[in-house]
């Protein structure tokens, strides 16, 4: 399948207001995208259309070969994994679950296990924990983990159903630098699972070498879209972030600095 996601002239309106306007965007096989923009730029709305929770007002959407309006959305959603810091609102339901139980629950898209789990399911959970460098926490309950460990466990949970697309929606929000790098450090392991990543963030320094392309949004419109080295320029980011910025690269990761305005006291 060459096209994983296709948006053609997609707009979405809410209460008479344009939230997304004329979005033309394609994700192709073996591409991994970061989606950048300020709050209110349309990132969440775009994700909700990808997952079929919002229907575009105009335009055509195809995800994993499924044209919206002609497909079974619940079945499609089983092929899309989703991890967000907002999932921690369910953390009380997970607190006393073991790490393995949390991961296995991803097969059933539930918080808690209410269906029969096979030996193969437990083996798969152990394999995912090992792949994401978490085998050292086997047997621990979720409430005993650090924030970085919890996020990685939730990523393993999302991978339990072998998704073809994995959405990481600001997964590093609220993490310290060490925990953030722990989460970013598993990116290579994720793409080896043949997932296509959609990584949503405000912070360009989180765009690791695994990310190949960037979609840059401002006020519901595309500022730039394409290979990350072409999109992540001072000019494009200044337009998207509504302030003058510079970009420099270190070890294949971009870093942003704000151009300070100089004021005279005379």
3D structure, described in words:
It comes from Fictibacillus solisalsi. It is a peripheral membrane protein. Residues 5-244 form the ABC transporter domain. The structure is a single chain. The protein has a single domain, classed as P-loop containing nucleotide triphosphate hydrolases (Rossmann fold), CATH 3.40.50.300. 28% of the residues lie in helices and 29% in strands. It has helices at residues 43-50, 73-77, 91-94, 99-104, 119-131, 147-159, 177-184, 187-191, 228-231, 234-241; strands at 3-14, 17-28, 33-36, 58-63, 66-67, 80-84, 165-169, 196-201, 213-218, 221-227, 245-250, 253-258. Strands 6-7-8-3-9-10 form a six-stranded mixed beta sheet, sandwiched between helices. A four-stranded antiparallel beta sheet has the order 2-1-4-5, covered by helices on one side. β11 (245-250) and β12 (253-258) form a beta hairpin. The model has no long low-confidence stretch (mean pLDDT 89).
